[in-house]
């Protein structure tokens, strides 16, 4: 699909004509909002860089040096959070029950969201680093965060990455390419799995799926 992408028109050139991923596709496949405030990050770094903000909001004492004899990647590097370190730290620490303070629950929620946004919706090509800039978009009123136009921002990221990876010599692609995969399965069924539902769903599963995005089904 990348080889058939034309950066001039942001469309796939196919033998039958041109096609492209639309905002409506993103909304139906993922359930992400496509209206609301634009997802815009700060134009400048906060005083002291992203490191202090990450430490303050995530609540982790994150060293900036590699813990094991200089091997691997440090958890925090130039305002970026290490994905493997963050996942392992969450698995070791996060325990939520009825007695967990609300501030702690919100901190865990913020950790989950920065992983979701920075590592899944806007990943880099290595899928090892999350930009600290995303944390600045996840601060404030929780309802306001959910009402931003995340779908349009993610689609813009997919467009941009397709323009990059369609060039000669490109070997990798970042962005939320799962959207492209779901879109291809839906609109070009010859590329879809032969049977996406290899077993018969019971009534409980069907009722559960009714409220989920089409891409999950």
Automatic annotation (TrEMBL):
InterPro entries: AminoTfrase-like_pln_mobile (IPR019557), MAIN-like (IPR044824)
Organism in which the protein naturally occurs: Linum tenue
One example of a Gene Ontology biological process annotation: meristem maintenance
Span of domain Aminotransferase-like plant mobile: 1-195
Name assigned to this protein: Aminotransferase-like plant mobile domain-containing protein
Alphabetized Pfam families for the sequence: PMD (PF10536)
